[in-house]
Amino acid sequence: MRSRRIAPVLAASAVAAALVPTLTPATASAAENPLPQHPEQRPAWHRCSSATPASFQCATIKVPLDYSRPGGKKIDLAISRIKAGSSSSAERRGVLLVNPGGPGGQGLDMPQALSAELPKSVTRKYDLIGFDPRGVGQSSPLSCGLTAEEENWQRPYKAATFAKDVKWARTVAEKCNAKQGDKLRHITTRNTARDMDVIRAVLGEKKISYLGYSYGTYLGAVYTQLFPQRSDRIVLDSAVDPARIWRGMIQVWAEGSEPAFTRWSEWTAQRNATYKLGNTPDKVRKTFWGLVARADRKPIEFNGALVSGDDIRAGRAMFFSVRDAAEEIVELKKAADGRAPDSTPDTGTPERPAPPSFGRAVPPDNGSAAFWAVACADTRAWPRDPEQYRRDAVRDKAKYPLYGDFASHIKPCAFWKKNGSEPATTIDNKVGALTLQNEWDSQTPLSSGLGMHRVMKGSRMVTVAGGAGHGIYGSKSCADKTATAYLTTGKLPAKDVTCQAPAAARERSSATKLPLPTPPGIPGMPGRF
Fold first, then answer.
1. Catalytic residue at 480?
2. Does residue 441 carry a catalytic annotation?
3. Which of 494, 464, 459 is nearest to 480 (CA)?
4. Residue 448 annotated as catalytic
5. What confidence category does residue 10 fall into, taking pLDDT thresholds of 50, 70 and 90?
6. What are 26-60's pLDDT values in tens digits?
7. pTM for this structure?
């Protein structure tokens, strides 16, 4: 089995994160009052695919590209469902919309995945509703015509390559603008939340319940902000901090990686008899940085690829799962020393299967195109001066050596021409919600989950102390019991809850096995935002 955490050069694909904007008075009515021509649609449900069960049904509805012009251009929105297991109207609660994360993550397959992972007490009460967000998958998918190299934004800052990286960011922005034009400014989290309300109305429901992972937490929070009276039971799993959208959420990866690296070095030193990377944390760190320096001088041939020191640093997420990281570094060190590595250990993190084919072919760069469209259109806060990115990357590489320069380096949003059609949404409401958070989450660290909890003032938070991995509900975590109780009874805990991850889950990722999107350039690592 190939290495799945190191060497992002092995597979650069789609990407990661989340933010939303507030409605102006002129647009509030269009979003908060269903548009007559859209709720009157009747979905033509059909079997999603010959390869899927007959109970897994798909349909396509129409939504406005621009909600301020509801009579204007329409786009497709692909939806899916598995009906509630109970036929009793007294037991059935309604619909549970689900989102796997992103931006740019396909969600049409989520009902089928969730039906196997969630408790029967939940699947009996709810129709599970999936959808590909606007611009994604089967929902009028975006493409910028990006090459695989242009999709890869795992770019360390180096003075010698800075001009080349600026050119890359400009090229991505220009290709997206040339190919998609005005459509880009309408591919936003806010408009996706409006689409969710059209889905609600089309299904004939007064309210929706919701389960969102990662970026999906931000999408769910935006829905509660725009449609508080239509929000029923809301579960936000592995949450984005709305105050840090979007550049700040990429930068939080660097900030969160440093304490994870410290924890890993301490854990590994205590097991020097097994891993032989050093018998003190300082010695373990010295071994690691020595390996990075060697790979920078001469890339290491590892599992059929050449791995540089920058590639090793870009695999920073592995340190949130201490046993996985120790095993990976041991194997990489063997390769550097010219010794044959053992077969790459199974880290227990499942590869994400390719989404099922439900119809039209999806452009190969769709995940990246949709990610940049949302990340750049949701907020106007991206710096425009390339020199600011240079200064920030230099500063943050010194402050956060593992990933600081990657996180703060220049991105296509610096040159994005089609900013969002509305200002950014402020999340600040008292809608009841349950947030779930692992202590050691590589994509949405604990600080991020706390940020969401603060602004969702009606929320309760379940923290899995010692828990590692991205995505909780459905992973048989200690948090599952609280989430299931909330979805089945509607009762939130009286106060925030902390439960303890079992010993095995503290050492190796216990992330959900649901098909969460894969971040760009880091094979096998679950979830974006």
1. no
2. yes
3. 464
4. no
5. very low
6. 333 344 554 555 667 899 999 999 999 999 999 99
7. 0.90
